[in-house]
Structure prediction request, 562 residues.
Amino acid sequence: MSRFVDTLVSTAAGRGQQRGMVTGEPREPVRRTWAEVHEQARAIAGGLVSGGLAPGSAVAVLAAAPVLIAPTVQAVWLTGGSVTMLHQPTARTDLAEWAEDTVKVLRMIGAELVLLGEPFDQLAPVLAEKGIQYSVITELAAASPLAEIVPTAEGDTALLQLTSGSTAEPKAVRITYGNLYTNVKAMVDRAEFDFERDVMVSWLPTFHDMGMVGFLTVPMTFGVELVKITPVEFLTGPLIWPELISKYGGTTTAAPNFAYAIVGKRMARVEDDDAYDLSTLRIALNGAEPIDETAVQTFVDAGKRFKMPPECVFPAYGMAEATLAVSFAPLFTGLTLDVVEADALEADNRAVPVPAADPRRGTDAVRAFALLGRPLDGLEADIVDDAGRRLGNREVGEIRLRGEAVTPGYLTVDGPLSTQDADGWMKTGDLGYLVDGQIVICGRRKDVIIMGGRNLYPTDIERAAGSVDGVRAGNAVAVRLDAGSRRERFAVVVESKLAGSGDEETRLSKAIAARVRDAVDMRPFAVVVLPAGSLPKTPSGKVKRAATAVQYAERIARSAES
Prediction:
C-alpha cells in the first residue's frame, strides 16, 4: 500500500472520527467527519469496482460541491486509480466547444469514465452525445462499500492535474502517489500544523492545484478541520471569506493576489469594528503568482481593525509540477521584501540589495520581491543561466527543481513528455535568484520583455498601471509584442469602469502610459482599456498574458495608431 492511501485510511479510523469538513455555507452548512467522508468514499468505490473499473484507471470528475468531491476523489484512490478534475463550464461557455475540448482531454489522459455531480449532472446528455461514459456520483454512493482497498505503489499515478492553459491544447501534470505523500507531508511539517487545533478555510476551486491538493487533500489525509465553499460563493459576496474565518476560528487560508486586494478594500469599508474576529489566523498563504505587495498591504491594513496579526501573511512558491508547494517563507515573519537595484537587475541579471536607509527606496530606481523561503523537505532548488551553468547567490537565472515531489512528466495530446534531465533536474520556466538559500521569483521566462538590452518584468509594469486611479485592482496586463525580434515592445491592457467613456478613457490611457514610463523607463506601444470581465484568466483567476495579446491584437494595433 502507498504511504498516501495508508495515511488516508489510518486517519479515518483515528483522528477522522472527530475532525471533519463543513460544506454548504452560507445557506445550508453541514458538517461531516472525515470518518463519514471515508464511509461515503468506500461506497462510491464499491460502485466503481462493481461497475468494472480496473486498478490504475484514469477517472475524470466534474462536480462543484465539495461535499461530493471529497468522497469521490478518495474513492478513486481507494480503487487504485488516478483523478483528473475537469475544467468546469460556466454560464457563458459554449457547451459544444466545451464537449469537444473535454473529449480531447479524456483521450489524452486515457480516461474512459467521467463522474458527474450537481450541477453538472445536467450535462449527461452532452457527454452521451459524444460517446463519453459517465456515472452519477449520488447513484454510485448507494452501492455496497468496497470490501478491500486496492493496493497502490509509490510510482502509480494518483493525480493528473490539468494545467491552467487553454483546454484547446491540454496538458496534464502526472503526480504519483509518492509525489503526493511527500509534498503534503512536507507542507504540514513546515507549516507546523496542529491537527487537533488548526482550522482551514477555503473557497479555492478543486480543479486548481492549490484548492485540490492544499485545501482538500491535505486536510482529508491528516484529519484537519476544513471549511470549504465554492468560488461562486466567494465571488458572489467576497466578505463571506472573513465571515467564515471568524465563525469557525480559522487558522489557515490561502488566495491569489486579486482576492486579497478585493477583500482588503471591502473590509476597509465595513463600519462595525466588531464585524469580524480574525485573531485566530496564523497562515494567510499567497503563492499562486509573484506576490503583489500592494494587494497584501491592503489586506493587512484592513485586517488590523479585526485583530488579524500582520505576521500571518505567508508567502510561498508553488507549482503543479512539484505537486503543489516548493517553498514556504518562515512562519510568523509576514511579507519580507528584498529590495534591489532596478538597473542591475534589468541590465546585468544581478539582484543588488538596496540598504534600508538608502533614499532610492520607494522610488522607481528599485524593485522589490518577496522572500519565499527555503525549499520544502524532498526538494532542492538552484539557479542556472541559459547555458545551464549554476549561478551564485543573488545572480538571476532560471530556477531548477529536483526531488521526490517533482513530477516524472506530462501527458500531452502528442504523448508523454518527461520533465527531468538525466540528473533529475526540472526547469521551471521561472526566473529568480537565491538569497542565502531562500527563493525569490522575478517572473515567468516566457513573459519577460526585452527592450534596449534590459529585461522588463511584466509584474513591474502591471503594478505601475494598477496604481493609476480608475484601473480595476488585479486587472492590468503587460503583454509582449514581436517577441524575440529587434522590434520587441509591450502593450498594457486594463479593465476599468471608464471603458467607452470617451475623454475619460483617453485621460486614463495617458495616465497609465505616463505612470508606466516613470516606473520602467520605457513607454508602452499601446494602452487598451476594457470593461470589467473582459480579460482572459486562468481557472484560478490569474490573468493570461499570451491569450490577452492574441485576443486583443486588433485593439492594441488600433490603440497604437490613435
